[in-house]
Structures are given as structure tokens and as C-alpha cells.
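Here is an idea for our session: we take a single protein and study its fold together. To get us started, please write out a protein record for me. Start from the sequence, derive the C-alpha cells from it, and show both lines together. Go ahead whenever you are ready, and we will take it from there:
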Amino acid sequence: MIVWGGLAGNPSGGRYDPTTDTWQGMSQAGAPAGAIGSAVWSGSEMLAWGGCTGSPQCNIPSATGARYRPDTDTWSAMSTDNAPAARFFHTAVWAGSEMIVWGGYDGTAYLNSGARYDPAGDRWTGMSTSNAPVGRRDHQFLWTGSKVLVWGGFGGPGDMRSGARYDVASDTWAPIDTSDPDTLRTNHSAVWTGAEMIVWGG
């Protein structure tokens, strides 16, 4: 398990090995600063992106990120060309060969935009916003193997009971059915079972 960052504002973390029940420190050289960002595991690297800085309030959004390799204990910067706009409270998933970042808050507005990052080429590709769900934070963002599911969260209208499906292959959005009497929710939990999304709490 890799733990990194947080609201203490320290660009620090550690690696935990459950087999030996031991922690190991991590290099801070080239590491990103900030909190309330996102991190995904690619199979060989942790990709950390976005978040916020500032003291005492963490209110300055970031549009930068870095890649951490545990085998060499090293960080390397991610390209900022075509990267998403600065944000925090966003979400990210690993989609098999790329990281997908979406939503969040820039300190003024709730965002319904995102981008896809390919670590093999160190490049960003934009995502369509046509039919994308309304901007939000504190939502759930799940990878099904072919689509990303967005559900719930908090935005301009307040707590939400809406979402959408993003098809990676076609770069298109489609709404998720809202006829079921699910309640408004934010800061909830959700998992993908292999066949369906289960939403709980909030």
C-alpha cells in the first residue's frame, strides 16, 4: 500500500508491506505538493495529479502531477501539455492503459470536464463534454472495463442523484437512468462488482 500527501501540506508518504508488517519511507525529490488530489496505480507506477495548496486554507488548485516508481523510489513530472484545468475534489480511475481524470472544483466553479493521460507517451487527450453530467465534486467514479460511471456528488444544484456513463472508445457520454427512487447523496461509496454498480451511504 502506498500512502501519499494530505491536508497537512507535507509532500510525504510511505509504503506498507502487509507480509512483513513494515513501513518504508518515500523519496520527496520531484514529488508533487498538495492535498485533495487523485492517485491511481498503473501496474508499475502511482500517478498523482491535481489537488490544492495554500495555507491556512487549501484553496489554490493545481494542474500538475507526477509519477512514482516504487522499484526505484523516484518521482518524475507528468506533462502539462493539454492537461485538464487546475482542480481539486476531482476523481480519477485507471482504465487499463490510461488514467482518466474528471470533475472537481477549481475554487470558483464545479467542473464537468476532464482528460485522459497515457503514461507510455506522457501525453494528455481531452474528453468530450457533450452530454457530460453537470459539474460536481464528492462524486463516485468507477471503471467497468469499458466505461466510466459517474454518480452523485455535490455541485451548483446541491446534493445530486444523477450521473452518466462515459464510453472511452467513442469519447461519448450517456445519462444513467434516474427513475429508481435513489436519494440525493454526496460523499457516498460505490463499487463495481463486474456486472453492476452498488451505491451505499453518503
